[in-house]
Design a protein that fits this description.
- It is a single chain.
- This protein is 8% helix and 38% strand.
- It is mainly β.
């Protein structure tokens, strides 16, 4: 048996991130992929869950710019709808926060090592849909 199978969902999720992989939980009954990791599927309470690797591709659902006093750079906070269904709260890196647009295609990446987290960058061809 895989040693990670004995971990509770949140530490197991973090272990996957530290290993450089983005895996989310999926309900075996409904096929629904969801985020944040938990012991039961939201809405149904089903505990028949497995882990699936996701593409990390998604679209910006909403965004806001956090303005800071110079010399600190402005930052953004965004809700991202992954292609697989879940919505994540994160940020988009590598671009001016004022240029982030609703509908823009983004790609997830893992930032940090000790405490990894999922952030997003603009996907190639990442124009916002009309």
């Amino acid at each position: 048996m895989d040693e990670s199978a004995s971990l509770t969902p949140a530490p197991q999720f973090m272990k996957f991130l530290r290993d450089g992989r983005i895996l989310l939980q999926r309900s075996k009954a409904t096929g629904r992929v969801f985020y944040y990791p938990r012991i039961a599927e939201p809405g149904t309470g089903s505990t028949e869950l497995d882990w699936v690797e996701v593409s990390g591709l998604g679209r910006v659902y909403s965004t806001t710019v956090i303005r800071r006093r110079p010399p600190e750079p402005h930052r953004n906070i965004a809700l991202i709808d992954l292609d697989e269904g879940p919505r994540l709260l994160s940020r988009i890196e590598g671009m001016d926060p004022d240029l982030v647009r609703i509908g823009m295609r983004v790609q997830a990446r893992i930032a940090g090592e000790e405490e990894p987290l999922i952030v997003f960058v603009r996907a190639s061809g990442g124009e916002a849909s009309a």
